[in-house]
Amino acid sequence: MPIENIDLSLSDLRILEDLATYGPRNVSEIARKLGVPAETLRKKLKRLRSQIFLRTNVNIYHTNLGLRKAVVLAEAFPGYEDLLFNCLKQNGFWVAIARCYGMFEGCASVFTIPKTHCSEFEQFLNQIRRLGVAKNIDAFWSTCFHSVNSRSMWFDKQLGYWNLQWDAWIEEIKNEQTELPYTLVDPKDFPILGDEIDVLMLKELEKDATIKIAKLAEMLKISPQLARYHFQEHLIGKGLI
C-alpha cells in the first residue's frame, strides 16, 4: 500500500541502504558499490544530512557489556508529566526518554541496567509510583533491538511512493523456518567483554559513528594505535557493536 510521498531520489535511497549495510565509516566502499567517486558521495551525504537530519551512530550490543535492556512505559498523574520525565532521568542508565501524548500522558523510555541490579531498578520504578508521580508504570525486560533498514526496492520510483507489501510479509513470517537473529534471543549470560576505554569510545561513536580514530584517541588521551586496537579487536572483534 503506497504511503506518504518523500522528496528523495532513488539514488538517495540506495545511498541510505548502503550506509546501513556497509556502515558510515566505509564511504569509499559504498562509493565503489554505487559506481560514483568517493568525493561525489561525500557531497551527497552532506546534502542529505541537511535535508533529512541524517544522523549516523553505532548500534551498541549492550548484552556484551553486562547490561539488560528494559522498555519502560509510565503514565503520569495529571499535571505531573514533567516531574515524571525528570524523575526517570535521575536513573543514569537511561538510553532514551520521550514524552508520550494521546493514548496516555507520560513517558516512554529505554534503560540498560547492569544484570546484577535489575531488582533495584524495579524498586526505583515502584518508588516513583508510590510517590504519586506515575499512575501506572511498567518495565518490559527485552533482548536487544534488531532494526530493519529501508530498502530501495520498496520504493516505486515511477509513482514516487513507498510501496510496502505488508500482507505478503506477514505470510512470509508465518512460513519462515530460519532462526531468530542473535540480538532477539535471550542470552544465557550477560558477559562484560568491554573495558573503560571501550565504553568511552562507544559513548562518542553513539553520537557520531563517523568520528575518526585519531580524534577518539585525542579525546581519550591515548595513542592512535591503542584506539585502533580497541576499535578493531574489542568493539568489532568482541561484538560490542
Q: How would you describe this protein?
A:
This protein has 241 residues and is of the alpha+beta class. It has three domains: 10-58 and 149-174; 62-142, Alpha-Beta Plaits; 196-236, Orthogonal Bundle (Arc Repressor Mutant, subunit A), CATH 1.10.10. Helices cover 42% and strands 16% of the residues. The protein has helices at 10-22, 27-34, 38-52, 81-89, 118-130, 166-175, 196-207, 213-220, 224-236; strands at residues 67-76, 94-100, 106-114, 134-142, 155-156, 161-162. The strands form two sheets. It has a four-stranded antiparallel sheet, covered by helices on one side. The protein starts with 9 loop residues before the first helix and ends in a 5-residue tail after the last helix. Mean pLDDT is 88; it is low at 1-5.
Short structural description:
The chain has 241 residues and is of the alpha+beta class. It is built from 9 helices and 6 strands, in the order H-H-H-E-H-E-E-H-E-E-E-H-H-H-H. The chain has a 4-stranded antiparallel β-sheet, with helices on one face. The chain has a two-stranded antiparallel sheet with strand order 5-6.
Major sheet size, sense and barrel closure? 4 strands, antiparallel
- Our Rg estimate from Cα atoms comes to 21 Å
Strand order of the largest sheet: 2-3-1-4
- CATH architecture grouping of the largest domain: 2-Layer Sandwich
Question: Would you report the number of β strands?
Answer: 6
Please provide the ordered H/E string of secondary-structure elements: HHHEHEEHEEEHHHH
Give the CATH topology of the largest domain.
Alpha-Beta Plaits
The structural class is alpha+beta
Can you count the helices? 9
CATH-level-4 superfamily name of the largest domain: Lrp/AsnC effector binding domain/regulation of amino acid metabolism (RAM) domain
Stretches with pLDDT under 50, minimum 5 residues: 1-5
For the record, what CATH class of the largest domain applies?
Alpha Beta
Q: Judging from the principal axes of the Cα atoms, what is the shape?
A: globular
Q: Report the mean per-residue pLDDT as an integer.
A: 88
Number of structurally distinct domains = 3
Helical percentage: 40-55%
Beginning-to-end CA distance, first to last residue:
34 Å
